[in-house]
Design a protein that fits this description.
The chain has 17 helices and no strands. It is mainly alpha-helical and 365 residues long.
């Protein structure tokens, strides 16, 4: 599903040379555009907070104070983006995330039940349990986040990828999506083979999550996990506010782009600044329950995702925009199937919670 949705957004960008919100404004009008902006601001605002929470959690794993590292990280990211020297630092952050390659090794060294892994990968398990549905929506939200679709399309437009040059970008999109999913699988297997087997089914802190690397790194698991988490959070801590700023600037036809300066794109950079400050400030609130907050934000993303998917699917099938790059029948089956799956999961989750308010149990147990 991730690769299908990502590829549709990339294809839409190559076919039109325009960002998603620019197309939404033209095709659906101001009212629907404002609605879509609200959805993205809520979803992405939560994700920005989660990334700075991740920076704080990573800093504490590395023995540093979040009250020093989070403001410093926010200031550095802001400076790098505003003054145009972010590209080479981005490579450093990416290199830091390479430590997550330890997860496939940890998964193997954890000696999981590979028959159970294969069965779980290919045979869906549906449980009549509210917590299960809640986590399912969160898993969908973290796999196909709205901001990724915005960033995917905007980045292609920014690079000027045309229809005739779309082939390599398509390969790149699929490669990235497949790699991301494989890494997620490795993390799940490593965690199940270590924490779950040991009876630890509640992960409350980043330190708990780091224990999944213990078969490989032992006492150094915290340092390894903290380094990777810091790199990933720093990278996303810049990308998320940028993607959101691009989307809103597109919606209102405002000047945008990191190649501009504050004077030529004041609203674009002001929004970027506001999002960075917001994320950093919330992340510094004492006693923030890191894992619960991260899960809740991903569930929120999952709940809002169907809204963005509808816009993408309608636009990619508009032959006036995409021409020969419109969806094939297979892509429509996969795309609308993904929409139906996510919408059903969200409806069941919200329906169960609503009925519970009136004392009606939708779920057993």
């Amino acid at each position: 599903s991730l690769s299908v949705v990502q590829e549709m957004c990339a294809r839409l960008g190559a076919a039109t040379g325009r960002g998603l919100f620019d197309l939404i404004r033209e095709r659906f009008g101001v009212g629907w555009t404002f609605f879509a902006i609200t959805v993205v601001l809520v979803a992405n605002g939560g994700l920005v907070v989660s990334e700075f929470v991740g920076i704080g959690a990573a800093s504490e794993l590395l023995g540093l104070s979040r009250y020093v590292v989070v403001p410093l990280a926010a200031a550095v990211l802001w400076y790098l983006v505003i003054f145009g020297s972010y590209e080479w630092v981005e490579k450093i952050f990416l290199l830091m995330t390479l430590v997550f390659f330890a997860y496939p090794i940890a998964a193997i060294m954890g000696h999981p039940d590979w028959h159970a892994v294969a069965r779980g990968a290919f045979v869906p398990t549906i449980k009549n349990d509210p917590d299960y549905i809640f986590i399912l929506v969160g898993l969908l939200g973290t796999t196909i986040t709205p901001y990724m679709q915005l960033f995917q399309q905007s980045s292609l437009v920014e690079k000027g990828v045309a229809r005739r040059h779309y082939g390599p970008e398509r390969v790149d999109t699929y490669t990235g999506a497949i790699f991301s999913n494989l890494m997620s699988i490795a993390m799940i297997v490593a965690t199940a083979a270590t924490l779950h087997v040991a009876g630890q089914t509640q992960v409350q802190t980043a330190e708990d999550a780091a224990k999944a690397l213990s078969p490989l790194m032992g006492d150094y698991a915290k340092i390894l996990f903290g380094t990777g988490l810091l790199g990933a959070s720093l990278l996303a801590g810049a990308v998320l506010p940028l993607a959101t700023s691009y989307a809103i600037a597109e919606a209102f036809g405002l000047p945008k782009g990191v190649n501009l300066d504050f004077r030529r794109a004041p609203k674009f950079f002001a929004l970027f600044t506001a999002l960075v400050v917001f994320g950093a400030v919330v992340a510094l609130i004492p006693g923030v329950p890191v894992i619960r907050l991260l899960v809740a934000i991903q569930v929120l993303n999952g709940a809002l995702l169907p809204v963005i998917l509808v816009f993408i699917l309608v636009l990619i099938n508009d032959t006036r925009l995409t021409g020969e790059l419109k969806n094939t029948r297979l892509y429509n089956v996969l795309g609308w199937g993904t929409f139906a799956l996510i919408t059903t999961a969200v409806a069941v989750m919200l329906g169960g919670q609503l009925l519970a308010l009136f004392g009606v149990k939708l779920f057993g147990g």
